[in-house]
C-alpha cells in the first residue's frame, strides 16, 4: 500500500480545492481512494491512501489533481486526471533579471493573445486544457497533445510570430487526425486494399508469374 504524500499549493487556491461544503475535496477523495488533510493556513496538503483504495496510483493521481487546482484549473477540469491517459504538465515562465514583472506580464499576454484568442486556439487545435496562473502555464491532456501545446507555447516564448505558431498547430492537428483515422480503420501500411477490382500489387505480381 502506497504511503502518504505531500503537496503545497498557493493559499489562495485552497478554497477551490475544498469547494462549497467540501464537495470538491470529497469528490477527489472518492475518485482516487485517498484522504486529503488540508492545512488551509499554509496551503499544505497531506494525501493518504484509504484502506479500500483500489488503484495503487491513487495517491499520485490525487496529488496531480490537487496540484492542477493549485495551478489555476477549475476542479471539474482537474478531475480529468483520474483518467490514466490524461497528464498534467506545468511550464515555468521565464523571467528576465531586473525586468521580471514586465517580462512575466508580456509572456502571459502573448500566450493569452488579444481577447484570449491565442490561448483558445492552442487549446482547441492541440485538444488540451490550459490554465495560466502566477508564474506558470499548465496543461492537461493526452501526452502527445500536451507535447504539441507545449512546443507552441515555447515558440511564443521564444519570440515566434503568432501566425507561425498557428501554422505549426494546423500541421500537428492534421497529423493527429491522420494518425487517429488510421487507428480507427485499422490501416496496415504494408497491406493496402485496392478498389474497383484492382489487385494488391503483390497479388498482381503473383498472378502474372503463374
Concise summary:
With 210 residues, this protein is of the alpha+beta class.
Our estimate of the beta-strand percent is: 15-25%
Oligomer: single chain
Structural class: alpha+beta
Number of strands: 6
Structural commentary:
The protein is of the alpha+beta class. Helices cover 49% and strands 16% of the residues. The protein is built from nine helices and six strands. It has helices at residues 14-18, 23-32, 58-70, 75-78, 100-112, 117-126, 143-157, 162-185, 201-209, and strands spanning 5-8, 34-39, 44-49, 87-92, 129-133, 136-141. It has a three-stranded antiparallel beta sheet. The chain has a three-stranded antiparallel beta sheet with strand order 4-6-5, with helices on both faces. A hairpin with a 2-residue loop joins strand 5 and strand 6 (136-141). The longest helix has 24 residues, at 162-185. The chain is globular and about 50 Å long. Residues 189-210 have low confidence and may be disordered.
Features:
210 residues, 3-stranded antiparallel beta sheet, 6 strands, 49% helix, globular
SSE order and pairing:
Layout: E1 5-8, H1 14-18, H2 23-32, E2 34-39, E3 44-49, H3 58-70, H4 75-78, E4 87-92, H5 100-112, H6 117-126, E5 129-133, E6 136-141, H7 143-157, H8 162-185, H9 201-209
Antiparallel strand pairs: 1-3, 2-3, 4-6, 5-6
Helix pairs in contact: 2-3, 6-8, 7-8
Amino acid at each position: 500500500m502506497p504511503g502518504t504524500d505531500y503537496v503545497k499549493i498557493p493559499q489562495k487556491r485552497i478554497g477551490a480545492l475544498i469547494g462549497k461544503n467540501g464537495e470538491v475535496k470529497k469528490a477527489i477523495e472518492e475518485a482516487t481512494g485517498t484522504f486529503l488533510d488540508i492545512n488551509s493556513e499554509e496551503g499544505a496538503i497531506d494525501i493518504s491512501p484509504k484502506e479500500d483504495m483500489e488503484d495503487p496510483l491513487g495517491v499520485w493521481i490525487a496529488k496531480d489533481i490537487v496540484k492542477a487546482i493549485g495551478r489555476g484549473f477549475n476542479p471539474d477540469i482537474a478531475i480529468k486526471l483520474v483518467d490514466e491517459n490524461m497528464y498534467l504538465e506545468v511550464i515555468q515562465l521565464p523571467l528576465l533579471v531586473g525586468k521580471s514583472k514586465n517580462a512575466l506580464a508580456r509572456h502571459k499576454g502573448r500566450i493569452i493573445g488579444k481577447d484570449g484568442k491565442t490561448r483558445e486556439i492552442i487549446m482547441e487545435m492541440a485538444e488540451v486544457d490550459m490554465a495560466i496562473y502566477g508564474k506558470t502555464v499548465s496543461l492537461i491532456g493526452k501526452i502527445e497533445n500536451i507535447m504539441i501545446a507545449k512546443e507552441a507555447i515555447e515558440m511564443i516564448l521564444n519570440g515566434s510570430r503568432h501566425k507561425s505558431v498557428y501554422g505549426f498547430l494546423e500541421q500537428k492537428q492534421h497529423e493527429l487526425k491522420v494518425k487517429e483515422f488510421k487507428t480507427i480503420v485499422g490501416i496496415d501500411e504494408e497491406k493496402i486494399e485496392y478498389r474497383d477490382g484492382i489487385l494488391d500489387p503483390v497479388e498482381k505480381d503473383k498472378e502474372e508469374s503463374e
